[in-house]
Amino acid sequence: MKLTKDQINDIKEQQAQNNKTKRVTAPELEKILYEALPALDHGFIRVVDYMGDDSSIVQSARVSYGKGTKKVSTDSGLIKYLMRHWHSTPFEMCEIKYHVKLPIFIARQWIRHRTANVNEYSARYSILDKEFYLPNKENLAAQSIANRQGRGEVIEGEQAKKVLELLKSDAERTYHNYETMLNQRYDGTTIDENKKGLARELARMNLTLNTYTQWYWKTDLLNLMNFLRLRADHHAQYEIRVYADIMLDTLKRWVPITYDAFMDYRVGGTEVSAKGKIVIQKLLNGEDVNLTDSGLSKREWNELMEAFQIKDKIV
Amino acid sequence: MKLTKDQINDIKEQQAQNNKTKRVTAPELEKILYEALPALDHGFIRVVDYMGDDSSIVQSARVSYGKGTKKVSTDSGLIKYLMRHWHSTPFEMCEIKYHVKLPIFIARQWIRHRTANVNEYSARYSILDKEFYLPNKENLAAQSIANRQGRGEVIEGEQAKKVLELLKSDAERTYHNYETMLNQRYDGTTIDENKKGLARELARMNLTLNTYTQWYWKTDLLNLMNFLRLRADHHAQYEIRVYADIMLDTLKRWVPITYDAFMDYRVGGTEVSAKGKIVIQKLLNGEDVNLTDSGLSKREWNELMEAFQIKDKIV
Amino acid sequence: MKLTKDQINDIKEQQAQNNKTKRVTAPELEKILYEALPALDHGFIRVVDYMGDDSSIVQSARVSYGKGTKKVSTDSGLIKYLMRHWHSTPFEMCEIKYHVKLPIFIARQWIRHRTANVNEYSARYSILDKEFYLPNKENLAAQSIANRQGRGEVIEGEQAKKVLELLKSDAERTYHNYETMLNQRYDGTTIDENKKGLARELARMNLTLNTYTQWYWKTDLLNLMNFLRLRADHHAQYEIRVYADIMLDTLKRWVPITYDAFMDYRVGGTEVSAKGKIVIQKLLNGEDVNLTDSGLSKREWNELMEAFQIKDKIV
Amino acid sequence: MKLTKDQINDIKEQQAQNNKTKRVTAPELEKILYEALPALDHGFIRVVDYMGDDSSIVQSARVSYGKGTKKVSTDSGLIKYLMRHWHSTPFEMCEIKYHVKLPIFIARQWIRHRTANVNEYSARYSILDKEFYLPNKENLAAQSIANRQGRGEVIEGEQAKKVLELLKSDAERTYHNYETMLNQRYDGTTIDENKKGLARELARMNLTLNTYTQWYWKTDLLNLMNFLRLRADHHAQYEIRVYADIMLDTLKRWVPITYDAFMDYRVGGTEVSAKGKIVIQKLLNGEDVNLTDSGLSKREWNELMEAFQIKDKIV
């Protein structure tokens, strides 16, 4: 990630603010406010604003007149209770806003989460930066054979080199031709004074999906956790997980009590179906259970055995 | 509106906060933060948190790295442009949270605006306050004859007195019986130590719709304006308009540039249909136009003539 | 539940429709289309329209050109997979619309589910029916002592009789006074030709919360299941569960494969936290575990033991 | 647009359905159900399901027991009234589902409308079709000089030829290299049996933004009109307008009364700000008005004069 001098100054200017407020603040989050936290090769995440803290959840759950915080232990108990019983509205009372730079193919995945507010940098209006995502060697995975939408082993040697060359040269060529069509270079200078440029809203179609875009993305705490639950999961595509992991850290700085409950009940927890419950009950009773009688599919059976570390039952 | 000593202290404690933040602040809004602004006879509105200011709209519309504010005049021009062309997403980047006390029949109207976050005081869990809305004499209107969902002339004299007595005595009696069923008084004391009380989730059904409830209500700036456009309008029921008018004032303190654009383009503006446009065009050309030829209904015609103050054409 | 002659005829007329369509249909649901299924003492649920069936979920998950149904067994496998892995969007592709008559205090609970479309009968515009909910004797529960928002034992004898009398007489008196204020009876006749009536939008505030209202309520299959998961649960208030149970039956008629998966993975399933998983793992390994070392609260511990029927560990 | 034999058969099979239903139907829409209506060079729109018709709007606005249709003229009056006064919920009671094939850069614009349900063809899971959008010559516009996000004159001659060549060759080369990386051709055949293919979720990043994707897109009537109002507007990008225009035709077939009201009040109508109203009032009164005194910006002034065809006042 490389920022221009102007961008660095803009960020410094924001960080130099020292405003007074009667609102609650999240001191650990304030420490990294506006900072561009690097993600992938050219991307970043910046927290640019937030509203509320752990006490706000308690306050609105109680519809109280005051700050809502009586004692940390009481608040923690209530937040855990709300999380465990899937209460949603108190967690909607906190809000966070990010500025994110990310490859377009990841932006397309990200935006499927509709309960958020988005302003994306407009390629109808402006020229996109000359930056493309190229995976690190260790992330250059082959198609998984077991899972139609997952990754398998890492691709190595000549084939890996070839893939990276293709990605790089195609992104560079299509960007170069984007400039040609626009009759304008990425720095804004005109190429040929005697020519008109193609409309930006058309020229952009020549760019590859690893081109970086950026947006402001704002969501409430509940929907942030829904996003992170799916996107910080090991089933998520690596490239979006990189962003989700950084956001998990901002969650911890912002609402540490909620973060703990989230890790315990959502991220680290597991769900057991009605049929799965019977299997576990029988195992606890020392009864014999097998895949065939369980009514589970092989995949479900193995997921259950793995969740409870019953290694010898995996088939 | 009457607050208990504890409530007053809770509010004072919140207002005494003096936190430092790198976030943008809205100084005029900070001045009234947490204050209980009276509404109707026992209700109130309190701003309990907010995120962003006018510059946040500009910042996200530009997806900029910095504060977004270049010059007030430039920002104002952009905000007016965004408002005029119905750009929605930049206005979603600011958020506000209210604590509201209001009669249940108004709460039922209010909650039809779904794009907001709500935590209501739970009458399954707690006993509701002994407070009911009773209209002022000047708001005791008869049913409108012209408009099936509007108000007509004020009811006066004996009939008015009777109505107010009925409202008061019914609310008091049903509340008293609510206490009897709960076997508990509004202050929490038990009525008969030898009896069980009816479940709160059942007893509440005996209350009348003018009983006050309260909630935390949080929304973004776009949806706040959508709410105010409908609820501060003269077609809205008086009792919700009282709240909307107070909120309009908080809007002005929070985002003064946006407030101006909102008043000009939304609240003070009008819409003209395709057929209506032709009528106005003809009038501007000095042509004769009449209701019959216009293709408008009588109601539409009159609404159009009123919007443009063409008094002599009203039929 | 009692319908007027006109209402019965309206329903019959709808049911007599025999239209041809190229759309998919749900034959079991068609059988009860438009029928008023009774709920509580005066309420009902009617399915008035729907879109899609089980095959529509498969079709959109595959983004296929055709009907999506290859074989029932394949479809069933895919639907189970989608449900297990919390895929949401394919279930949003089916839609259902209900006409519901329900007490206002239940309507207020119901409407907290915001991801639905609602048109409620307007008491600003019309006079509400003279119908109030009165619980059956077996549902007249005392406040739970263990759970602040639950029910305990049934109230019986004199106290029960008293409660029912109060509910009945208060509802009747407030309705009677509602008519007096409106200067109009529930059947539309005027009371005193020489008087104006109070505006309907005001008079309604005198009604008690057990008065029946009605609405059209439309939602997609995903959000219907979210609603039913919470509202058909034994923690839900009895009065809303009555409606949820009827809707569960309509779900089964509409999308039987999805219904089965829903019952297995959502309704009958359980969630286990990270800490809870360790407890179960230890028990499966024959290790000794107790509440103190588990890091669980007493309540969590007991919920876990109950979920897996480990009765002797309940503390 | 070219469909495979299998796709054509799938569509025919759907169209051959002849189901009976008690639901309301929209006969004109049934005529084109499932048909692939061509859009751009390789795209299409297919209506694959719908719920409700004009009478459903009336029915839910009235919360009626019956079909809601009394007389067409009454229904039409009510629908016009609802549209004029921005009533939203009755229009949410109808639903439509499309299958759309469209270039990725248009899909990215489209998906900004969040109040819809979407299932997109997954390039993590499958290989995308070898189809790219190439503009017709008459749509190869230069960047507008007046409007930073619009189009100006058409580009012609050698430059046009060059642009089209670049778009074509870049799309073909990047697609070819996509196949190389996948070690698989677009028809599913393996290229080199001795090699693994790159994970599909990675290889897709090499594709250009004019590659076609497809999705199921479902929305309610209100949100469809919000979409069409913005996307069938002449300010919208040509490539999305092509789709919006086709959808306007499906709207007409589906709910003809609503379509008429929509064209009159939304598409053909105009909005006038508070300041603009004063200008028109003065003009109607024969008073002199000019830009400077009006308080309008030059752009606003001209938009107003154009809306009412006051050609000689345009500055």
Describe this structure in words.
4 copies of one chain form a homotetramer. With 315 residues, chain A is an alpha+beta fold. Chain A has 3 domains: 5-129 and 210-267, Gyrase A, domain 2, CATH 3.30.1360; 137-206; 274-313, no CATH class. Helices cover 44% and strands 15% of the residues of chain A. Chain A has 13 helices and 9 strands. Chain A has helices spanning 5-15, 27-30, 54-61, 72-84, 104-110, 157-182, 200-203, 221-231, 238-254, 256-267, 274-284, 291-294, 298-307, and strands spanning 19-21, 37-39, 43-51, 95-103, 117-120, 141-143, 151-154, 212-220, 270-272. In chain A, the strands form 2 sheets. Chain A has a 5-stranded antiparallel beta sheet. In chain A, helix 4 (72-84) runs parallel beside helix 10. The longest helix of chain A is centred in the middle third of the chain and has 26 residues, at 157-182. The two termini of chain A are 45 Å apart. The model of chain A has no long low-confidence stretch (mean pLDDT 94). Chains in contact: A-B, A-C, A-D, B-C, B-D, C-D. At the A-B interface, helix 1, strand 1, strand 3, helix 3 and strand 4 of A face helix 1, strand 1, strand 3, helix 3 and strand 4 of B.
